[in-house]
Design a protein that fits this description.
The model has no long low-confidence stretch (mean pLDDT 90). The longest helix has 16 residues, at 4-19. This protein has 189 residues and is of the alpha/beta class. It starts with a helix and ends with a strand. It has 6 helices and 9 strands; from the N terminus they run H-E-E-H-E-H-E-H-E-H-E-H-E-E-E. Helix 1 (4-19) packs parallel to helix 5. It has one domain: DHBP synthase.
Length: 189
């Protein structure tokens, strides 16, 4: 990861673009993500189009802190709350029920959304300013995730407003755990 000054600069550029309804490719705590404000229906649909993503397949939403779940009208049980305290911030995306039709553009009618509080200080600082961001990996569906900004540019070209270079990112994607039932269920280790 690049040094803190550069990370702060990328946060400013990405923040400005995202607050205008734009799209950015940014480093996350796992891979490069192609991000847009989760509450911006047009921006979310644009990311789906750019990635040629299955329109029924939901995306992961990055949040700055656990309390941001209130934006999605999600109330946690004591067991869910305890579990999230153990895994966040971290490379664990957690699926929670979200039946609110206001967010059907995110849950794609499935009534659940995967959330993650990233283990990445500059990214959490960005999320505090932009609000929740959808963050699928930076690649068209079926292609390998971009490991560098050059690879992301090759995929998306000028259709992305801001590319934020965080060096080479080749880590695995986040784990995915469902908290929809009473016991946590691992969907992706």
């Amino acid at each position: 990861m690049r040094h803190e000054k550069e990370m702060n600069e990328f946060c400013v550029q990405a923040r400005e673009a995202l607050l205008r309804g734009g799209i950015a490719v940014i480093p996350t705590d796992t891979l490069y993500g192609i991000v847009a404000q989760a509450e911006d229906v047009q921006a979310v649909e644009l990311v789906y189009k750019m990635r040629a993503r299955d329109p029924k397949k939901p995306v992961i939403v990055l949040i700055a802190k656990k309390s941001d779940l209130k934006i999605f009208n999600i109330s946690l049980s004591p067991a869910q709350n305890k579990f999230l305290n153990q895994v966040w911030p971290g490379k664990v995306s957690v699926i929670l029920p979200c039946a609110d039709k206001k967010f059907s553009h995110v849950h794609r009618g499935g009534g659940t959304i995967a959330f993650r509080v990233p283990d990445h200080d500059a990214l959490r600082a960005l999320l505090k300013k932009t609000g929740p961001l959808i963050a699928p990996s930076a690649n068209p569906e079926g292609m390998p995730p971009a490991k560098t900004i050059a690879e992301a540019r090759a995929y998306f070209g000028d259709s992305v407003d801001v590319y934020c270079d965080g060096g080479t990112l080749a880590g695995p994607p986040s784990s995915i755990i469902s908290l929809v039932e009473t016991e946590p269920r691992i969907l992706r280790p």
